[in-house]
């Protein structure tokens, strides 16, 4: 299968967009009515919009074709009526282009022909246009404000018009909508023109006067505009008005927050206020007004962050961090000391005692009080440090403090993602010389190194583990040689450590403990972090088991390794981890049985298992947590893995097994891997008699959970035979029986050849078609048998193949696909997803190579797919279509064989037996197939015997229910109108059924069939038609007359 590169794919999409736009543009010139044009062009434009979204991950791929797309879209837009569906769709495409490629880039491709000005103005004045059209027109008009000549040259009063239209749309909504944003762009560009100073003063005067009366929704649009206006820091007109914006607009809202006068200010407004404050700070820095800068910092921290921290979402935290980092960046250019003071001021907000005195050295043991920890402040501060790193304004002296902070937070905190970002940005900003200075404190650098590895391997959140990957890539990629030189080992080992770590980072495979040890890292690096988790009760079961498995994996990998281990100089020691786990267990943390059990299994546990005195009876009570039961089961299975003769462990294990595996959670989620590991014990450990009897009774009553987890290898032969009897016992639930088959490794007899045990009637079970109110539940048995046969690669002899041929043609998807994969050697996974059309095409092709003795089995199965009365229409239609295709190209001998086999399927033994449900379904499906063949006007072979079909149908109708009678009557109908030796007999039989019907339903069916026959043979014969009226009471004499007249036609 060829792989198409992203670049080629994007080129194809661009070409498809061009083709759709070109065809739409041509249709607009075709002169068709407007409604037809919209009907034809609407889907094309909608498709263009969807295609544009595919460039979100690589927006620059649009650039090569962007001018072409914009030009054709512009033509289409101007050819459509304002407010029409087509105009709305076209403008929505423009908006999508702006979303993907940014409006600042797209606006440069719009036509700058000023003669379009009047057209744009007239369109935006149209009251019927929608939001997308308004956005496009505002964007286009905004591009006109950039012209280097007076706007009056384009149109008289254009400046006033643009001001009015931007203000109107700026205040239309209060949700930072797309029209508000582009209106703010238009207004800011208009007011910051060289000839717009007076308009700017007028606008600001209006804002200042009306600000107290405006609601927050109306204020939002103006805040957006003011932020864009303040972007022009070099404008003297804006600089002159900046104090007024600060004092009369911003401080008014901040006072409302500070003094709790208004607590309803939306987060979006606060976000723009912070942006405005950041830009105001730049104006004051330019004028060296540091008092005002200090005031703005206090506004951000004390008037916004502190009082509103409880409602600070991720966006507000990020915005606050960016604003503060920008102020530091401005200060670094003019007042370095003030910049350092601001960084420490932010750091003080974290309330860490050791940092109050502004230390300059690394401290791995900072005191962070989790009960008084403000996630908002810590998250904002870490993002702030990260942005400082990206802007390269973080002073080298502060780096040890930052590493002290991240060392403490990155392990176990809910803001670890910000810590990863902070470290990543820091490493990007450091030079080689800076890092050499840091290496003078080897413990600090190695602690950071170990912290990154711990997050990468041990973190609970997969997203955070992925966050640590680019951090380590920057760390090793930039400073690998320097890091290697800091390790106390041989030159070759140091080089190998860095090289292997680099190779590990380039792999897409998830990092494992074994990978880490193979690189040369000591397991002791991870142990402190893992033990912190494992000694805690406030951890999810899934994460706890993952850490437990990691601990054991690391210990095993190190003991089984090649001895290549390079030690890092870290401040944490995990040598006493077993003692810590034991103490935590004694303190009531029963989850500690998982790591202790894992260590016992790997023979790494230093504590004697018998010294752990556990109260199993209390765990077996109904009130005990299920997780505790699982932990106990795991512990005792570990004891058995270490010593099979441990009688105490055997008794406790079997006592816990049934309560665990009968719980629905045992095979779900986090508990499943632990339970599966626990139940996989040695076959030499016998199951206790009373436990087996309890299990057998529960399985007989339909316990699927036990059937799926039955310890088969621990059963002795008598116990095994008792369980095998349940497989064939149809009083047992079908799903339970299927589970007994799927999970039983002891179905085959011992020996070199594959043979099923006599107790397992494999071939008989392939004929299990048990039907309940749930449908064909026997299909679960058939599928389980086939799955087991496939897993054990059983030989396909004639008897098995006969069954497989039938099953490969039946209507149950899973059974059909599995049987076909066994017959052809294809994998089940490749057969199961294919369409019905593909499958039955393959099946009928396969039929052509079947030996004669297996063909009856094929038709016995395929009638259920082609003509089953309760199969899906999609299945039946596809299967029947492929049958007709096969029939059309088949030899006459194959056609005759098909008809003969189908007729044999309709033959009943004498005396007529009591039919089981499966046989009844097969008869109905076969009858229905003949009906469908007649409906399709199929050309039957010349040698076929219609009399045989009549006889079979006649016998099947005797004392038959209404459903079978209906199908037989349809066959009699076709035989009545087709010239053959049974034509008269078929007509006569329909009349007899009409006269002799025992139920009104069958009489009605016969009457309808008779009407169809008369309508086909003599539609103008009123006498015959009268006999077929529903209200007509047919007498034996009438029946004779009817038969006679029908014979004469």
UniProtKB/TrEMBL annotation:
Pfam families: ARM_TBCD, ARM_TBCD_2nd
InterPro entries, alphabetized: ARM-like, ARM-type_fold, ARM_TBCD_2nd, TBCD
Tubulin-folding cofactor D ARM repeats domain: residues covered: 409-480
Database matches in SUPFAM superfamilies: ARM repeat (SSF48371)
One GO BP annotation of this record: microtubule cytoskeleton organization
Organism domain of life: Eukaryota
Gene Ontology MF: a single term: beta-tubulin binding
Protein's recorded name: Tubulin-folding cofactor D ARM repeats domain-containing protein
Species whose genome carries this gene: Candidozyma haemuli
